[in-house]
Design a protein that fits this description.
Elements: H1 24-40, H2 60-67, H3 74-82, E1 88-90, H4 98-111, E2 117-120, H5 139-151, E3 158-161, H6 175-195, E4 199-204, H7 213-222, E5 230-233, H8 241-255, E6 261-265, E7 299-303, H9 323-332, E8 380-382, E9 387-397, E10 400-409, E11 418-422, E12 428-433, E13 435-440, E14 443-448, E15 460-468, E16 477-481, E17 484-485
Parallel strand pairs: 1-2, 2-3, 3-4, 4-5, 5-6, 6-7
Antiparallel strand pairs: 8-9, 9-10, 10-15, 11-14, 11-16, 12-15, 13-14, 16-17
Length: 487
């Protein structure tokens, strides 16, 4: 989302991602088949939610459409993105005005008998200091903010997507900080339900290629998911819907609570992910339109949590609407329905008072979710011989960082690969995605995952990882691919 970390929120740099070993062709087939079933559905038939979601005429995309009616991209963006309901992020710390902002948004949805989707994104140290850094100054201030937020919810059904990346991304938190965060999230769930028993609150479950189902369930339990409606996944990300449904079932099994359900962000997953790229990847498309008609008993809804067209932090600042991004998503998306009837949806109008809200950055595997590093080290690139390697620090904070690596094979085709390098500092890899990474002192070894071992001549493979460091985060040296020096 992300800080936008979505996505976003959506939410850049993160924690343990384990890519599902599913072939691209199989994933495409499963997702396409699922999408066909869902698009043919005409009435709610699953979960505990019924009704239609609110389309905000003052969203970022609709503000742009109102200001640029003659733009050549406007028609397609309007039809395939502006016409669709999307979540409203509340990501700017504004204790004195948050209640009135929530009230205004909820009342607007109620006035057209639609369900508002709200994303409170205000926990301290959100996004681990990445592109969507910010939040309330303290846990105490956060609870006060939540009290005011809750006071604006009214009495009718509302969906709350609570704090993207808050549970999936915790590598920058101490054990005390984790406990404080869990307590704050549990407090928010209880407060929302006390004020409005009709509210549906969902907690962060990351996505199918991040933490394991068992680990995710443990984190959800610690944050009080038993008192919520369930959890959401894929916020600010691009994972196939079929993968998220399967992942959600496994999380529910691990939780062992039949009262809990899942919602899935389908805003930008119409073509699935682009390898491990999470930050404004090219060629993605909008996914299944928001609906409560999921045909999945454990899935309450498909929701657009990360607004399509709002940057992850690479194409522009996180949360900023970029028309070229929106146009590309619209061109490649599976949503082809015309705009909703004017009788049920207000016409777009510009609202000068609404500022762009960050959403969580998308994880590196790739949440709406979730970057341009605050103080990046320069990228390293080696290679004029049998291989070349691009090593890039995507985001960095005071004691950790996320990096991505692209290998280009200049020699004969490979069926498996091992990449080694040496750090001159004290960096330590904590987790990785698209590869198995181990270390012995300063020497690091990355081996291919099950799905990306083959690299054709002049072909590429990529992976990413998260690591800790102290002092200076210098780039590695002496890259070798299958014992051949990349130079």
């Amino acid at each position: 989302m992300t800080p936008d970390l979505t996505s976003s929120p959506h939410h850049r740099r993160r924690s343990d991602r384990r890519l599902v070993a599913l072939g691209a062709a199989a994933a495409m087939t499963a997702a396409t088949a699922l999408a066909g079933v869902l698009l043919a559905t005409t009435e709610a038939s699953a979960g505990t939610l019924t009704g239609s979601f609110y389309r905000d005429p003052t969203s970022g995309v609709n503000q742009w459409l109102a200001a640029n009616p003659n733009d050549s991209r406007a028609s397609l963006i309007s039809q395939r993105i502006g016409s669709q309901p999307q979540a409203r992020w509340f990501a700017n710390y504004n204790q004195s005005t948050i209640q009135s902002q929530v009230t205004s948004y909820v009342n607007a949805a109620n006035s057209v008998n639609q369900i508002p989707v709200l994303v409170p994104y205000m926990l301290p140290n959100r996004d681990c200091g990445g592109a969507s850094a910010g939040g309330a100054p303290t846990i105490s201030a956060y609870r006060t903010w939540i009290d005011s937020f809750a006071a604006g919810l009214g009495t009718r059904t509302a969906v709350i997507i609570l704090e993207p990346d808050s549970l999936a991304l915790q590598t920058c938190l101490s054990s005390t900080e984790k406990a404080d965060r869990n307590s704050a999230i549990s407090y928010a769930v209880t407060k929302f339900k006390q004020v409005n028993p009709s509210v549906k609150v969902y907690l962060d479950a990351g996505h199918s290629a991040w933490n394991s189902a068992a680990d995710t369930a443990s984190r959800l339990q610690a944050a009080g998911v038993a008192n919520a409606a369930g959890f959401y996944s894929n916020a600010s990300n691009f994972r196939w819907t079929a993968d998220e449904i399967s992942f959600g079932r496994n999380v529910l099994t691990a939780l062992g609570n039949g009262n809990l359900h899942q919602v899935i962000d389908t805003a930008r997953n119409g073509k699935g992910p682009l390898g491990s790229e999470w930050c404004d990847p090219a060629g993605r498309g909008t996914g299944q339109a928001p609906t409560t008609a999921t045909n999945e008993a454990t899935v309450d809804a498909f929701i657009w949590i990360k607004p399509p067209g709002e940057a992850d932090g690479c194409a522009a600042a996180a949360g900023q609407f970029v028309p070229d991004l929106a146009y590309s998503l619209a061109q490649n998306g599976i949503v082809t329905s015309p705009p909703p009837s004017p009788s049920t949806v207000p016409s777009p109008s510009v609202s000068p008072s609404r500022s762009a809200s960050p959403s969580p950055s998308a994880p590196p595997s790739p949440s709406a979710s979730p970057s341009t590093p605050p103080s990046p080290s320069p990228s390293a690139s080696q290679g004029t011989g049998a291989c070349s390697v691009s090593y890039k620090i995507d985001s960095q904070w005071n004691n950790g960082f996320v990096a991505s690596v692209v290998i280009t094979n200049r020699g004969p085709a490979l069926t498996s690969w091992t990449l080694t390098w040496t750090y001159s500092g004290n960096q330590a890899v904590t987790n990785a995605w698209n590869a198995t990474v181990t270390a012995s002192g300063a020497n690091v070894t990355a081996r291919n995952a099950g799905h990306n071992g083959s690299i054709a001549t002049n072909g590429t493979a990529n992976f990413g990882f998260q690591a800790t460091y102290s002092g200076t985060n210098t780039n590695p040296t002496a890259f070798k691919l299958n014992n051949v020096t990349c130079s």
